[in-house]
Structures are given as structure tokens and as C-alpha cells.
Write a structure and sequence with these properties.
The complex is a heterotrimer of chains A (295), B (250) and C (394). Chain A is an all-alpha fold and 295 residues long. Chain A folds into two domains: 48 residues; 242 residues, MetI-like (MetI-like fold). Chain A has eleven helices and two strands. In chain B, strands 6-7-8-3-9-10 form a six-stranded mixed β-sheet, sandwiched between helices. In chain B, strands 2-1-4-5 form a four-stranded antiparallel β-sheet, with helices on one face. Chain B contains ten helices and ten strands. The radius of gyration of chain B is 18 Å and the shape is globular. Chain C has two domains: 103 residues, Periplasmic binding protein-like II (D-Maltodextrin-Binding Protein, domain 2); 220 residues, Orthogonal Bundle (MetI-like fold). Helices cover 60% and strands 6% of the residues of chain C. Chain C has a four-stranded mixed β-sheet, covered by helices on one side. A two-stranded antiparallel sheet of chain C has the order 5-6. In chain C, helix 2 runs antiparallel to helix 16, helix 10 packs antiparallel against helix 13 and helix 13 runs antiparallel to helix 16. The chains are: A mainly alpha (295), B alpha/beta (250), C mainly alpha (394). Chains in contact: A-B, A-C, B-C.
Amino acid sequence: MTPLDKTSKIDKRKRRSQFIAFTLFKLMSYSVVAMLILILGFITTKGIGVINWEFLTTAPQEGMTKGGIYPAIIGTLVLVLGSSLFSFPIGIMSGIYMNEYATNSKLAAFIRVMTNNLSGVPSVVFGLFGMALFVNTMGFGDSILAGSLTLGLLSLPLVIRTTEESLKAIDFSFREGSLALGATKLQTIRKVILPMAFPNIITGLILSIGRVSGETAPILFTVAAYFLPKLPHSIFDQVMALPYHLYVISTSGTDIEASRGIAYGTALVLIAIVLIVNLLANFLRTFFSKRVKMN
Amino acid sequence: MLTVEAKNVDFYYSDFHALKNISLEVEKNKVVAFIGPSGCGKSTFLRILNRMNDLIDGTRMTGSVLIEGEDIYAPNVRVDELRKKVGMVFQKPNPFPKTIFENIAYGLRVNGIKDNSFIEQRVEESLKSAALWDEVKDKLKKSAFALSGGQQQRLCIARALAISPKVVLMDEPASALDPISTAKIEELIYELKKDYTIIIVTHNMQQASRVSDKTAYFYLGELIEYDDTTKIFTNPQKESTQNYITGRFG
Amino acid sequence: MKRFLEKLAEGALLLSGSITSITILLIVLFLFKEASGLFRSPVIEEGYVIALNKANTVKSLSSYEIKEIFDGEISNWAELGGKDEAIEVVRLSDLTNYYTEEELGAEFENIPAKASELTASHPGIVLFLPKQYLAKKFDGITLDKETIHPGDFFGGKEWYPTASPSAQFGLLPLLLGTLWVSLGAILLSLPFGIAVAVYLAEIATMRVRNILKPIIELLAGIPSVVYGFFGLVVLVPFLQKIFQLPVGETALAGSVVLAIMALPTIITVAEDAMRTTPRAMKEASLALGATHWQTIYKVIIPYSKSGITSAAVLGIGRAIGETMAVLMVTGNAAVIPHTLLEPVRTIPATIAAELGEAASGSAHYQALFALGCILFLITMVLSISVEFISKKQK
């Protein structure tokens, strides 16, 4: 009789420890889901009553305790647009460079490290930097221009990585096929590779919009206005923005208690933006992957 | 005495009917070779014998498989107990990123054995059975990755033997190895047959004819022919078998 | 022509490719330029001067020492390495204790002369005076060239930028506050993150996974200000109630909110790492009679440990740099924390809360940039260590 012949008791024990561990992991995973439902559910139930057409289309009134959040919505849209105009073209071009041109060089490795580092830089540091460079040194002042550029820099690593990964997913044989027909490298990228990578890139870009629309710290000192009921006329104007507005009315508004309702409404609008952006991205992902399957 | 007894086994990967009504018996202390072209189902059938296919999502099996008279697909069967009885060696050597000693000891430890002197004794016995002891006895504490490919595969065989299985399944164990290592593995299989029942999947017909007592030929998910190895290679009953072993396709 | 355009486009791509590197360089340049100004700023409030008796052997005072003197915590020059002489603090308004209003003059025109005289006659004096009242031939030592010492910043135990006569820019309470809150966050979120990662990578069925993954993505997408708001209206009152606290805005509230926010990062990175475990390794373990759980903790987790470490480091990085949520729930008291149930103030929250009030170019403004540098350096070190860990894995 060797110890190997009497392992059946141990078998029972090891199966019990598996059962305990797996049950625990399952419970912990579901508690993460429960947490999300709690957050979303709480803000939705408190905020849904506040949201109506008037709330979305009028300016704050009476020290931001009444009225709507129209200027903040417009401000956030303007900032998203402004930052995208900056970060999308440069980010995509940068991603193309990284994946198609600089695959193995020391320079590429350096750039990759720098991109990773930039994505780790806290958003408040972007705020400081944007203030020092765009607001003060370049003299843009607190403006849409300064805020958009700051937000654009912040979202660059995300855009670059998305582009790079979308390009990486395309098999090398497609490049060889095009090059073998006498196309230049640039033509190959423009006519073959980019169109194929387009669906994934778009999905990534949409997710980056979600991120930008919720950022507060980078716009605190570069563009965001505490209270500004009128809409901007030029890129050198300040604007209100949804996340900053939520911060203001929930911590330092004129009357925090009276503004609570509006705060819930604003939080719900912010969550709705994230939800829509995520759903859209998921929808596009499945839509495009189905189309690829059909081909 | 029958060690393995499969009856009317059908197997599906979602919609794909991978094995069609396979029935096959293996006697104790024999070596059986599974041959056939790629995708014929021989590896799938091998993995049915230790329920390794359970790991793949969307698979389904009907029929029954008895090992030493016990139905291994019965609802009360514990797969970890089954796999202790039915060891497996894979196509590519897959040692753990641990020391040579710990690789062999792994199977004993996960089965709850804590007696260190027993573990040491088993490690030595298994390495000797796998004809690896003399090469590694001075470097048991070194990483298993420091060994050559052939040595790694014999380490994996020793690892499978350490928990004293009744059956050893080998899925093309020499396909990733050089000819000398392959010869060593074949020699080893011949030795091991004294103590174990061995089922080996192979692409290499010479190998099948050299090491096995019986050979099963699979084609398109069906068991075409199963007989003594000498008979299969000298006087096959089916034309398909004849074509395959004479190299007309495959 | 075609070749030329091709070259041009390649140039443009290279330029775009280097944008992140340029940005990092510019961040370093601007942050450190502004921050270094802090150590050229006077210790004493702008436009003021501190004067001592000529015979005083103490020739310079640090920001912290000035504060201690004016708070009455230091009352003898011997404590500062000088002679055994009581310290006599005199502010402009205190001059009337020594001189009549007539002596000082109807238009205070005699103040410079009298201040000089007072300083000369009192060996233990510390006179705090607006520069305009400083006599041309002042009979004493003036400390107006004194600048903020790096020790005042890096070793300073108090952050009190509006203190008079000497603002306190001590890094320690903020740094400890940041580390305290982040440590709490990571201790809460790491076990959860790894458990969920294991569940997703190994245990959950495809269908469950397809439901859980988008939920975790959503959790990552919620803006930090919404987490802060949720923390403020739900978590803070809750903590106040169950721990019977005077205020619910505490380090713990910050840690909990940050833990939730760091979860998606930890889960995603750890899960990806576990998925890289070769299938062969997993099958080998199962084929030896190991249970799935034994395979997970004996093979998969050891194999992916550098990925799990990266996940933890990235989670810490996310927690340390997080601004708005922390600003809203931690109470922002700039004191060195002792328990998780006290209000604390973190570096990012300080920058966000105070930069709006700090005049551009002032010492306060520069001190906030110095905080930004510290934050930048911490996250840089974390990013590089992740780089290093994942390189080692390969």
C-alpha cells in the first residue's frame, strides 16, 4: 500500500476547496455587478424625475438652484469636438507610424514607452500643463482652444493604441498582396490597410469620446466656467462643462442642498453619455464583425 | 482482461460530427497505435479516454467508455480521479516552469501527498522508468526548461508515470523531436508496456509498426480497421487502410 | 513627384509618431520650470521683511522656524542655536506698545526710525515689517533675501499656503495622505480584482463572460466626478453613520471610491495575463489529476504573476493620480493622517482645489506645480516599472 492508494479522502478535500474558492470568486464577481447596478440605479432613480426638455434646453437660474444645464451640455459637446479635431488625426497618424513604419527600431521602442508613460500621467497634471503652456505661455487664456488642446493631449495615448492594435490585427499577407502589385507603402496603407482597420479604429475613437466628455481636472484651469449662461462665440471664449458643473453644484454652489436635484440630473446625463457611447461602440463592433463574416 | 472498452462513441464539436460510432477494446499491458490522416479524429478519440475534451466548450458525446470496467462518463465520476488513473503525454513537451524535481512531484502534491521521502522515492523511480535518471540526477533542482526537447518529453513521461496510472495516453509524443530522441522514446514505450497499458497516436507509420501490438486506423471520424499491427501492415482488410499505409494519401 | 509626396507623408507620420514624446518633454519642461521658481521665492510674505538685532548670532530662519516663532512654539533663540535670549515678536501693530502715537508721527512718518531704534535696543527681537517702513540706514539684520529651502518643501510637515508671515508648503501631509488613501484603495480592490479576473478567465462560461465584460467596461467609463458625487451623497453619510464619526469625509471614503475606480484596470490587465498561460500547461496539470482550482493556483497564477503585478501597479497609479472623486469625498484636511477614519488631503486634490486661487507666478502657484512634479515623477516611476515587469515576463 503506497500513499497513492489512499488519496480518495484527499480528493474529497481538494474538491471541497475548489467549491469554496469558485463560489467565493463568483460571489465577488457578482458583487462588482451589484455595485454598478447600485450606482446606476441610485443616480437614475434620483435623477430621472429632474430630466425633461426644459432641463436640457435652459440655462441655470437663481444661483444654479433652478433651471437647466443647457450651456454645460453645449460646452461639453464643443470640448469633445475640439479635442477630437486635434487628437484623432494626429493619434491615427501616430498609430500608423508606430505599426507600419517603426516596427523594430530603438526609436519605435522609445516612442512606445513614452506613449505608455503619457497614458499613465494623471489628468490633473495635464491640467497643470495645459494651464502653463496654452493658457499662460501661448496666451490663449481660459478658452475652448486651451481646453480642447489639453483634452486632446490626454486622449492621444488611447487613440494611438486603438489605431495601432486595429492595424496589428490585419494579417501581413494583405500588405504583401498590395505591395506585390506595385503599390507603394503609403498607397497600401491608404487603400488596403486603413479601410480594413476602420471599424476597429472607429470603435476605439468613440470610446475615447466617452472618456473625454467626463474629464474634469484637465479643464478646471484651462476652460471651464463656474457660471456662464450664454453660449460661446469664438474658440477664445470660456464654456461651462457637465462634469465641472456637477462638481460645482455638489460641493461649492451657492446652495448645495437646493441644487441636489440638478446635481442628480447632471450626473444622470453624464452616465447616459457614457452608456450611449459604450452601447454604440459595442453595436458597431458586432455590426462590423458580422459584416466581415458575411464577406 | 480489458483495460479500455469504448462502445458506440459519437462526438460532436458543436455542429461538426467528429467521431462516428466508435467501438474499440484495449487489453492490459498492450501498446495500441492510432493512425490516420490529419483531422481523422484519432486525437479526439484519445482525449475522450481521459475526458480532456471536457475543457472545450460546445462539445457533446454519446456512447460509453469503460476503463477497468468503470464507466468514465457516468455522472458520479470525478474527472480528477479518472485522470490520475489515465495519464497523458502531449504532442509538444510541456513541462511546468518549475524545477525538474517539482515537475515530477506536481502530480503527487496535487493529489495530497505530503510524505517527502515517498515523493523523493517516486521521483527517482519515475525518472528511472523514463530512462532519464542518469542524465538529470545531479540537476534535479534546475529548471526543467534547461533540458533538451527530447529530455523534456521524457520528463513529461516521467511526470505522468509518477502517479502510477493504469493507462498512458500519448498524443504524437515524438512529433516535435529529432530522430535520436524519437528512438529513445520508442525504446521507452517498449519498456513501459510491462507495467502500463499504452495508447499512442502517431503520424509516423514506421513508428506505429515498431512500437505497437495493435493498430487502429481512423478516417473521417470513423474507425475503419482495428487489428494486430502485423496484420494491418501486411494484410489490411479495407482498401482505405491499404491506401493510407502505402502512402497514397495522408 | 509621387516619391516626393510619399516622403512628405512619411515625414508627417514620423512627426505625429513623436508627439507623445514631445508632450512628455514639454510636461517635464513646464512643470519643472514653474516648480523650480518655488525655491527662488522669498520665505517671507511678499512686500514684508523680518529684522533681527545686530548682535543676534542666528543669521537665517527657515520657513518652518518663522512659523514656529510667530506661533509662540519657539520662544528662545537658544532653541535655534543662538544665544540664551527670549524671543520678542514685534509686528507693525505692536509698535504702539513701545511708542506713543505722537512718537510714531501723525502720518507714521517716524516708524522707520523708531523700528530701527527698537531693533537695535532689543537683543531678542523679531520684527515683522512692511518693506516700505524699512529705514534707509536700518540698524539691524534684515532677512528679506531668504528663499524657500528644498527642505521646507520636501521635509515640511505642514501645508498652509496662506499662513502669515511665512506660508507653509510642506509636502509630507499631502504625500502621506495620497499614499494612505491609495494604499487603502489597493488593499480593497486587489483581492476583488484578482478574484474577478480568475472568474472571467477560468471559471465563467462564455455567456456569463459576455455579460460581465461590458459591465466592467462601463465601470471604467463612468466619469470620476460621478463616482465622487455618488461617494458624497451615499458613501460619506453611510460611513459617518456606521462609524459614528463627526464627519464622513475620510480617507476611507476616498479609498472605497478609488477601489471601485481601480477595479476595471486591475481586472482587465490580470485577466489578460491569465489568458496568456499556454493551454498545454493547463492541460498538463489537469491530466495529472489536479482539480481546476489546483491548476489555477499552482500553474496559472504563478505563470501570470508578473501580469498580476503589473495590474496592481497600474491600479496604484490610477489611484494615486485620481483627482475629482478624491477631492469630493476625503474632506481635504491637510494634516498627517493617523487612521483611515480621518479627513485627509491628497496631492491631486490639493492642486485641483487651490490652483484657481493661487496668483500666477506666486510662491503658492509654484508650490502647486512642485506638487504636480512629484505626482508626475511617481506615476512615471510606476509606468516604467510596469514596462520593466512586462519585459521581464517576455
